[in-house]
Write a structure and sequence with these properties.
Elements lengths: L8 E4 L5 E2 L3 E6 L5 H9 L4 E2 L10 H16 L3 E8 L7 H9 L5 E5 H4 L2 H20 L4 E2 L6 E4 L7 H10 L3 E4 L5 H11 L3 E6 L13 E5 L2 H6 L6 E2 L5 H15 L6 H5 L14
Parallel strand pairs: 3-4, 3-5, 5-6, 8-9, 8-10, 10-11, 11-12
Antiparallel strand pairs: 1-2, 1-7
Length: 281
């Protein structure tokens, strides 16, 4: 029996990419701006990322952190970006905003020190976000070709990986698999690659993680963990032939690509932690 291709629904971007979500992202360039970013998002309908980075980085660590934040801002699920900086951080918010805007439209910047402090920065940020959200809400979604869908897999050492890749490709999607990283680090890589959706294969006693901007389909690989954390997983894949497990996961991917919320989206997972490449202050 022929396998029906995915029918993802999403939003065309000016750069030719397609997102299955249409988020307004408030992105702090440094931990010192996280509170302001959170308050701006809480007062609107935006998505704010929480992180502990952006200051006292050097060398490769600095480039890694900056590239990771830039990659999140460029993901096709993001319809518009507001960068929030302090004004004296290592990863300069205005420079990061310019780098993102050179590759996409709808990027704004608010500097806390330049605005005159926290209260003024939040007020200015809210004005920008509300205007951008009005634009995003006018955008119409539509069905796009499954070949424009990139599904990320956050591990390569699970027996389900190969049959799942085959199943995704049979349904028309492209697949990216990361090596040498797990959890949030893998999700960052996949988001920067442009994956609109991430499948997370969680091994025994491994709790699921979400990721801001990219829906994460969390798949429990054993019955015990799934039973203990059922609400936090999207489904369990175990006890059946791997081909049937792959089909179950692919079916859920298809639903998420048509708007179904993942467990991590429902619980509002927006934090991430970068791996440090070297010991710094």
């Amino acid at each position: 029996m022929a396998i029906a291709p995915f029918q993802p629904e999403g939003y065309e971007r000016p750069n030719g990419r397609v997102g299955i979500r249409n988020h307004m992202l408030v992105l702090p360039s440094v931990v010192c701006a996280t509170r302001v970013a959170r308050d701006i998002a809480a007062a609107t309908d935006a998505l704010a990322i929480t992180h502990q980075h952006g200051c006292l980085h050097v060398g490769d660590d600095l480039r890694h952190a900056r590239d990771s934040l830039e990659g999140v801002g460029l993901n096709p699920n993001i319809g518009a970006v507001l960068l929030v900086g302090l004004g004296c951080e290592t990863i300069a918010g205005e420079s990061l905003a310019q780098a993102i805007s050179s590759r996409r439209v709808n990027v704004d910047y608010v500097g806390i020190q330049r605005a005159g402090g926290t209260t003024a920065a939040i007020a200015r940020g809210r004005e920008i976000v509300e205007a951008r959200l009005a634009e995003l809400h006018r955008e119409a979604s539509g069905i796009f070709e499954p070949g424009r869908l990139l599904v990320g897999l956050d591990r390569s050492d699970d027996e389900l990986v190969e049959p799942l890749v085959r199943e995704m490709e049979l349904r028309g999607a492209a697949v990216a698999v990361v090596d040498g990283a797990r959890g949030g680090a893998a999700h960052l890589r996949l988001a920067a690659l442009g994956a609109q959706l991430i499948v997370s294969l969680c091994g025994g006693h491994e709790a699921p993680l979400g990721f801001a901007g990219c829906p994460v389909v969390a798949v429990a690989r054993d019955r015990e963990t799934y039973t203990m954390l059922r609400d936090d997983f999207d489904l369990g894949a175990y006890g059946l032939p791997v081909g049937e497990q792959a089909a179950l996961v692919a079916d859920r991917v298809g639903d998420v690509c048509r708007g179904r919320l993942t467990a991590s989206e429902r619980r509002g997972s927006v934090d991430f932690v970068l791996d440090r490449l070297s010991v710094t202050m």
